[in-house]
Amino acid sequence: MFLYLTTILTQGGNKGINFVIVTGDFDNYSKTKTFEKSADFLKRLMETLELEITKDLFIVPGNHDCCTPIEELEEVISSV
Length: 80
Prior knowledge:
- The chain is mostly helical.
- It has one domain (2-79).
- The protein contains 4 helices and 2 strands.
- It has helices spanning 2-11, 32-48, 53-56, 70-79, and strands at residues 20-23, 57-60.
- It has a two-stranded parallel ribbon with strand order 1-2.
- Helix 2 (32-48) packs parallel to helix 4 (70-79).
- The longest helix has 17 residues, at 32-48.
- The protein is elongated, with a radius of gyration of 13 Å.
- The protein starts with a helix and ends with a helix.
- The relative contact order is 0.23.
- Pfam families: Metallophos (PF00149).
């Protein structure tokens, strides 16, 4: 999967993808920096796929993601 995503990001284009579902965990220890990196990655991925991040991206947090204080998560999520 990582190789496929790398190919998409380096070659560009939609490749027939209509939406993206991301399941956690974004981090093992719920660190804000990791969530920021994840948000940057998702923004880049959605732009490359020419999809709308507010309509075509579905995020399902994992059990490790929920250990982060809600204020930190809201800040990162609102930046996406």
